[in-house]
Structure formats: structure tokens, C-alpha cells
Input
Amino acid sequence: MHDRSSYLEAVSRLRTYDYHYHVLDEPLVGDSQYDDELARLKASEKAHPEWLVSHSPTQTVGFSALAQFDKSTHHQPMLSLDNAFDAASLVAWYERGLTRLRKDHHLASPPRINCEPKLDGVAINLRYEAGVLVQAATRGDGSTGEDITLNAKTLRALPHQLQNGPWPASIEIRGEVFMPRKGFDAMNRRLAATGLKTFVNPRNAAAGSLRQLDPKVTASRPLDLYVYGAGAVVGDLDAATHSETLAQFERWGLPVNPETRCVDSIEAAEAYYEYLSRRRAELSYEIDGIVYKVDEHQWQRELGAVAKSPRWAIARKFPAQEAATQ
Ligand SMILES: Cc1c[n+]2nc(N)[nH]c2nc1OC(C)C
Output
């Protein structure tokens, strides 16, 4: 660098590289070019200490993100799912629910089960008021997430205005943002071709892309969305079952996964598992399982959520004793 102004230009250029790399997660240059330019900057500052400015990248330790997302509190907490890793556990889950319901009801027919692919993406909470998308947030800790409304609005699958009313005055709609395999591979090829860091898997790519501080970067990423349930509803969601709710979502213009099925027995639910595990490799997106839900809202309400168990009490269990003498 032969004069101070070209030194100051280099400082500004490196700070721009830093912002794109650390904040936008969208590097502008490869690591080797960045290292060369930083080395030249250090050499200039050594040769001309009187040029040094405090905002030079050589003077800043680490890199704090310039801005954060606002926080957004869900009007109804976003629950997480218990896992079943084999058929017996799935049947046990269903039997437990049947036993509980049979305590207070004569069940004319067993509760129907809605079966959905569990997408390997990022959960999102959408809030529509008077049919207009007013907020989108990540799951966060289940109660409070990050407000990523501007980023969510770049999702081509997401309507900003619901169609075919009526709809409740306010409704939270939950779904999964994901990156289809083909889009993921193409994006990684582009990043690798410019010597930039690639993503390990579509889930990380979806999370990183949805949580960009610059919505333009999110818009450039091949993200997609399926919705799968409702949170807080103000007004009337006239649907007695989950499958009716999903049909309603589709009528309103929201994307619902076409592999969703409602079945009449736990055996049919198990058959669905076999069916989808065979189809898994053909799907254009990654799934990490199936979500089974009791379909009738009345039974969902009665079964409730175990998360409501008291936080202030705990049972410390003795190891199971050897089965009593038969
Ligand atoms: C956490 C979650 C994830 N998923 N994914 C689907 N398809 N449905 C679904 N439901 C969830 O939670 C509700 C059962 C509350």
C-alpha cells in the first residue's frame, strides 16, 4: 500500500468481508484471499504505525454480530415430541392413550390416527391476524423464539394473506421450514466452487438460511415449508379433528405435506411406517420419522400434554425391583 487512502480502503474492504462471513454467513471471498489481504494490511500498519485506525480488523478481537433478532413470545407454547424407536413403543403409546380415554368414555370406535412425515428442518410459528401474516418466529425455547418475519416472507410457499375465508381473528400456525435435497446440493456446489464453507446437511442449511440477519440472503436460499398444526386460536376454528384442520389450512392456501394420511387403527399406522420408510429415498426432502397424532380434538384435549406436570415436584424412583415371585 503506497498511501494512507489505499490503507483505509483495505480496512473497509476487510470489514465488509468480516460482516459477510460472520453475520450474513455468506462469505464474499475465499479464506486464502482473505488471509492474504489481512497479511498485507498488517504489514502496512507495521511499516506505517501513524496510519493505524482503531476500527481496523487487526484491532477488533472476535466479531460480534452487528444486530440480533427481536424476541417473539408464542401465544401458545410449542411442544416437543416424545420418541418411539420401534413398533412396540408405538403400540404402547396408543394403548396408554386408549386406557386413559376408556376411564371416562365408552369408545364406540378406537381414536383415529393422523400420520405425517416428520421433516428434518426447522420449526416455525406463523401468526395470521384477520388472515394476514403478521409474525413468524423460530421455536426458540418453546415459549419465546426469534422474530424472523422478514425472512419467512421470502418463502415462496408461504402465503402472506390467507385465501377462501372465513378464518379465526387470530391463529398461530406451526410448520417446518426445510431445504430440499436438490437445492441443498446445488447451493453447496456454488459455495464450494467459490472456496466458501458448505453446510453439513439440509437441516443445518435451513436453520442457517432462515436465521440470516439479511432477508436478501434468506431469499437466495432454496427453502420450502409444510405446515402441520395450530397453536393459539382466537375465534372459531370449526374443525373437530386434526385432519380437518389440515384440510382447512390447504383451503386457505397453506402447504400441507401430501404424504399425510388419517388411519383407523394402530395396525394401519404401523403399515404407514413401512410404506413411508420404503418411499423415503424417493422423497425430494429429508425426513427423520413419522409424527402420529390422535385425530379427534376432543381426545387430544382429554389426553393433554405431559409437559403440564408440576415443575416443583419430582419422583425419585428406586430401580425396578426384580419381578415378584410369579
Ligand atoms: C414438534 C412437532 C413436529 N411435527 N412435525 C409434524 N409433521 N407434526 C408435528 N407436530 C409437532 O408437535 C405437535 C404434536 C405439538
Summary: The CA atoms of residues 154 and 312 lie 43 Å apart. The two ends are 89 Å apart (CA to CA). The longest strand covers residues 224-234.
